[in-house]
Here is the input.
Amino acid sequence: MAQESSKTTKDQTSAYTPITFDRFIRWTLTALGIVVVFLIVNYLSSVLLPFFVAWLFAYLLYPIVKFVQYKLHVPTRPLSIIVTMIFVFAIIAGIIYLIIPPMIDEFNRFTVVLTKFLHETTGSNNISRMVKEWIIENQGQIEHFLKSPDFSNAIKTAMPKVFSVVGQTASVVISIIASCITLLYMFFILMDYEYLTENWIRIFPKKSRPFWHELAGDVENALNSYIRGQGTVALIMAILFCIGFSIIGFPMAIGLAILIGILDLVPYLHTFALIPTAFLAGLKAADTGQNFWIIFGSAVLVFIVVQIIIDMIVTPKVMGKAMGLNPAILLLSLSVWGALLGFIGLIIALPLTTLIIAYWKRYVTKEEEKPNSDSSPSLPKGEDV
Here is the structure.
């Protein structure tokens, strides 16, 4: 008994690690290092954004590339990547085909409705003749305005805006170039994906590599679970919206449902779909003569019913099993990291959040015991602990 009590006391003493000055300095330097890294990432966000986006796409496409290369027996990795990208672009083109042509038809109907409205209110079907007559009737006032100082001031105010439009056009060109760079990044990352994912740990000292390896395994498991879970939720939501919009006879039911499903890949982002929903409700009201508020109210009712089904039944079943996290926490992480690092923050919000939660559970609250050496994930080949 005495030996057991002394052993227990020794274990309790060894479990408590005193905070020494050296440990305090190391923690402080680590915290400062993290702050410096965040500041550098924030400062270089425009340069690093294509790289982070490329890594995200490579992570998502790697299972498909692996399937194409090893299951479909495509001989080389570059050819497998090209086949995968063609497949993905074909899917995107199909989605665009389901959304854009119906939208063009709705705009054409809007033009017809607008022309009909002008004809009924003005009694004329020729808009250009109406404008010409208005200019002739108000010629004196127009000449007076063109010669007034107000017009000169308006020109002076408008010129910087014109140059800003030119600058925005240049930024669009730069964005296109950045997209090409992102594709190149993604291609080269996928070329050596296995090597990069297995050997990134070598940037850390050997003593701390098991820690980072275990933590990376936790993050990868949580990330895979989230992507599968949220993708399933988005798919179910798109199907429910398609059924609901079809029942009430809402225009572009399939296209709008697909758009909502894509937006819901980021939690609760599908609420922005209320904007095109209101526009389509207005088009239907103008075309059929029905009350706008009844049409829009029916669409909002579909939103409410689908959201209740998703929040009360689908999300707890799917995401609860997948991650054990409330979607509100995921939304909060997107908001916080997005506010700190902008669009890069939105991309890395989920990995960072899962990293923090995994670290907290494994090393702070001790909710997840460290795996034994037999069950722990293996380090890269030739790696000594």
